[in-house]
Predict the 3D structure of the following.
Amino acid sequence: MQLQSIIHFFEKIAPPSLQEGYDNAGLIVGNPEMEIKKALICLDSIPEVVEEAILIGANLIVAHHPIVFSGLKKFNGKTHVERAVMLAIKNDIAIYAIHTNLDNVLHNGVNQKIAEKLGLINCSILEPKGGQLQKLVVFCPDSHAEELRQALFNAGAGRIGNYDACSFNSHGDGSFRANTGAKPFVGEIGKKHWEPEIRIEIVFPKHLAGQVIKAMKAAHPYEEVAYDIYQLENTWQDAGSGLIGELPEALTTAEFLKLLKTNMQVPLVRHTPGAGEQIRRVALCGGSGSFLLNKAIASGADVFVSSDFKYHQFFENEGKIMIADIGHYEGEYFTVELLGNLLTENFRTFAVVFSGIDTNPIKYYC
């Protein structure tokens, strides 16, 4: 199995366009055309993990966190980043990271995995992303409109929330004149022609633009396809930061904290007092999520589960919500399980191994 096939698979689940500006997800080290025989899954591709890959014969490391966030100017082994990259290159080991783009998808994403661990239902994105949707408007003769619509649906267009095959269609008359050298589907060379047409409007995520346009051109009968693409300001409900969901039944504060500590396998939970006696509505964000606190409050959540809150930020709950800080590593550790399961369920030509290295730089004395 070539690495580029694995990359293509991951990027369909978590498009690179969804990563945050500071991030560096994607192929960090390696050649997309290299053959993969064994993959090691981890949270952080630190030098010890690269050494583990060498020991077990893995030539691909799939990590949640990128080992490189910014440019490297020297490779002399002085930092753990340089040592990891040097060791990987020397041993022909590829490193691929899938970070905030995986954080920012609802389906098969980091936050959905946490929600599963907590047993949440009726989940949705806490802060949906804007600027991710486009609209295609294309004009097609009546005779081929259904075939064209279906081709666009098959390419991933026309999905809005829990609905698919969504389009708007209006009838009109198109005019054109085929000039010398043209091969018109209808009409005659040199004569102005009027054709009953359907204006088809259909929404799609912008990362699918290439395949949607390709499908449109393949299914359209005209030699020259008339179409427009508009950038939409609508938020995309399938992508964004954090998640909001509900417990099947309300729990007391103590019961919820016990559930959180047990199911997330954390040594401790730093938390503020609760705003009420019961917890039902839960907001969460894997990794550092303090920037979403106001969104969590506005959503009506009883608790916001995340990590990396600073001392003074705990006061910002203003008595309206419980903040439950479970730790950065603890909040994302199950991403290893998520990535490993995705690979084993979709690929059978190489082995998948979970790293045995504890990469958490923070230790607890209890």
Summary: The first strand starts at residue 26 and ends at 29. The domain at 3-99+334-354 is CATH 3.40.1390.30 (Udp-n-acetylmuramoylalanyl-d-glutamate--2,6- Diaminopimelate Ligase; Chain: A, domain 1). The chain has three domains: 3-99+334-354, 110-128+240-326, 132-232.
